[in-house]
Amino acid sequence: MEDYDYEPPLMATYRHLLDSHPHRLDVVDHRSGADDDEEGFLLPVIDLSSLLEQSSSGAEAAAEQCRASIVRAASEWGFFQVTNHGVPQALLDELHQAQVAVFRRPFHLKASQPLLDFSPESYRWGTPTATCLDQLSWSEAYHIPTTNTTAAADDKTRLVVEEVSTAMSKLAQRLAGILVADLLLGDSSIGDGEDDDTAAAVVSRCTRSTCFLRLNRYPPCPAPSGAYGLCPHTDSDFLTILHQDGVGGLQLVKAGRWVAVKPNPGALIVNVGDLLQAWSNDRYRSVEHRVMASDARERFSVAFFLCPSYDTLVRPRCGAGGPPRYESFTFGEYRNQIREDVRLTGRKLGLQRFRKPE
């Protein structure tokens, strides 16, 4: 696949890592045996239509049941799918077409020239810090801040990115508000005047200037040993909204096992991030997940990350969940610690850095 001029030089750059693991078949599951069902596992699916139709007592009861399903899925799974979510399928299809065209640009242009009004640093590929195959992500991506654009009105790619960002932001804030509001009910640790702990205040810290969208492409990886399209990790944000194509490859940890997620192009995937797990004192789960590279097919996805400002204080809300399990920290401190851990160890250590001793 490296013959095409749009492909990043992944094989030429990382062949030595692939060759050092010629029999690496544990990509199926390097823990305790994975779900080997090629069809994959279907995540909980939640229909959000009732949240938009609250004109009667019956509709409000359905909406309350929907909110309870969201809370339960975030607590038990950390991952779930939503339908009737308010992001038009036609818009997602338009973004997919634009995304394919963006990644079909010659590699030397992607690497040297900014796309539209994106910063030159928005394009990334591979894993420059990888010292072993476990640290290598066989992928390329555009990391796009969701700040107001200065692009011309005829920049169709930029405009569709803006529309998707706006729609996913609205959805993420609605879902985050539901999770935060439920967590704060009956939390005796909240005192009078703690305005920063209201559901609206917490979610309002995640603005267009702090969130970002990521366009992902996972090229085919011809190495017989297999490779990660995206290394095992948890998300460092508050909440993530993901749209993936029908190729598959996403896996997550459930009950100590890696399970493959069955693609559902008609739904969006939602997952809890590290900040929400810490803020909820482990009630909500930020689950480790990964993407497996295919040896024959490329894969596309788009992810929206709901992030607060760097000075936002993450302080565990205990409620009935016992004493705080984490030290308080700001999002900025968390991001800096992740960067330092990656620099020193080659991998993200995450919330364990801030967990209090048992």
UniProtKB/TrEMBL annotation:
It catalyses: gibberellin A1 + 2-oxoglutarate + O2 = gibberellin A8 + succinate + CO2. Pfam families: 2OG-FeII_Oxy, DIOX_N. It comes from the Eukaryota. Pathway: Plant hormone biosynthesis; gibberellin biosynthesis; Hormone biosynthesis. The keyword Metal-binding applies. Its EC number is 1.14.11.13. Gene3D superfamilies: B-lactam Antibiotic, Isopenicillin N Synthase, Chain. Belongs to the iron/ascorbate-dependent oxidoreductase family. GA2OX subfamily. The lineage of its organism: Eukaryota, Viridiplantae, Streptophyta, Embryophyta, Tracheophyta. GO terms for cellular component: cytoplasm; nucleus. One of its GO terms (molecular function) is metal ion binding. Signal peptide: none annotated. Keywords: Dioxygenase, Iron, Metal-binding, Oxidoreductase. GO terms for biological process: gibberellic acid homeostasis; gibberellin catabolic process. Residues 207-308 form the Fe2OG dioxygenase domain. This is gibberellin 2beta-dioxygenase. InterPro entries: DIOX_N, IPNS-like_FE2OG_OXY, IPNS-like_sf, Iron_ascorbate_oxido_reductase, Oxoglu/Fe-dep_dioxygenase_dom.
